[in-house]
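A favour, since you know our structure tokens better than I do. Would you make up a two-line entry for one protein for me to read? Write everything out right here, beneath this request.
=====
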Amino acid sequence: MEASLWSGATRSFMVRRDIPSIVFTTVGTTMTDAALSGMKRIPFLRIFSVSLLVTGTTVGAGILALPIQTGLAGALPSLAAMMVIWGIMLATGRILAHRLITSDKGAADLASLLERELGPAGKWLLAAGYFIIFYGLLVAYLAGATSVLVSLIPVAVPGSAWMIAFFLLATGITLFGEDMVRRGNVAIMALLAVAFAALFIMAAYHVDVQRFRHSDWYFLPSAAPIIACAFGYHQIIPTVCRGLDWDSRSVWTALWLGTGFALVMNLAWVLAAIGAIPLAGPGASNLVAAFEKNLPATVPLSLILHSKLMTTTGMVFAFAAILTSYLGVGIALIGFIQDIGSSVVGKVGRRAAAILTFGPPLVIALVYPNIFLKVLNLVGGFGILLVFGILPCLVFLKATRNQPARRRVAGYALLAVFGLLMALELAQECGWLRINPDVEHWNVQQMTSPNTDGQE
């Protein structure tokens, strides 16, 4: 996210909502520069490096939750849904990039763009969506880190003690180690990549192809918000545009490549986890138990493989993903509260902003510790779908209001899809719609098979 989301600052600290990357950028490019840059040829190496920034922004701690709910839907439904949601999220990203590039007013960030395109309502809807995303993710990170520690470290320590310990460590680094975070981000990302590769390889060796037979299309809507979390990158689009001199072809290439890399990583991780983790069975080493207990995917995976190396690798991967994301979201939310506070009640000091940033998530996580997947569902089902789905569609429809109806069909179709996904999430949260995994059918089916899902 952008820490200076509310005003056209001359220098903005830009981080992701689920953030393994932190980038400093100078906001000085004007749209006159953008027009002139159309005569330049952007080197592919530069485009590729920016695309990796998009990948880092897309892939974060949400990847820990992805195999659980997608696994309950089954491999084929999950892969289909991931490709569709990747496609529509890429489309809304292109809408925002196009409006930023073609604007003659040079919007510095998404807040100023949406305010210009949709009026004050667009700005405040963005603010509401960002608060859902920011606060929800901080709660999820606290709950997720606690679940990993309690499940994988055999020490009789209360979960609340683990949570407070992680909170003090991560929050302390966020408040007092911003320069250290910036300097060490590359090393942390490298550690995350190595741990991910090792985890994927170890899980792939334990894949049982029989588990790919499970298919529950009815459960798929319940997995859609988590998938949306896994493909949210839009907050970094202004940085991409500035980094590539507002050249539309280069920006589109970077978005396509960056999100494409993230899609491949997510698909590979989901397939490996679904193939390695049983759907149901005794104990916590199965997808249903992880779903019911709101556990990250690394917990049942480590319990299944019974390997000290696997447990260590899983903890390193989970903590690298959660810690980098926590730091980025925390820094961004402090800046966001200061920016929005200055436009409402006047100047907000850093100490007050820090209390408002970290106090509410800690209280919620302590009261509701087993809420990791639940919170990510709320973040994806409401915050992500609103800010990165519905609002870009409204921008497109307003920008094309004087064009023939046939050219606006795609915008209405995208708006209908995002609206339907949000409506389904709202119906589930309000208890109007209950979607449960079809485990009973799968267990009966597996009783007739020589390779049961609960056996290793």
Summary: The two ends are 42 Å apart (CA to CA). Residues 376 and 405 are 36 Å apart (CA to CA). The longest strand covers residues 11-15.
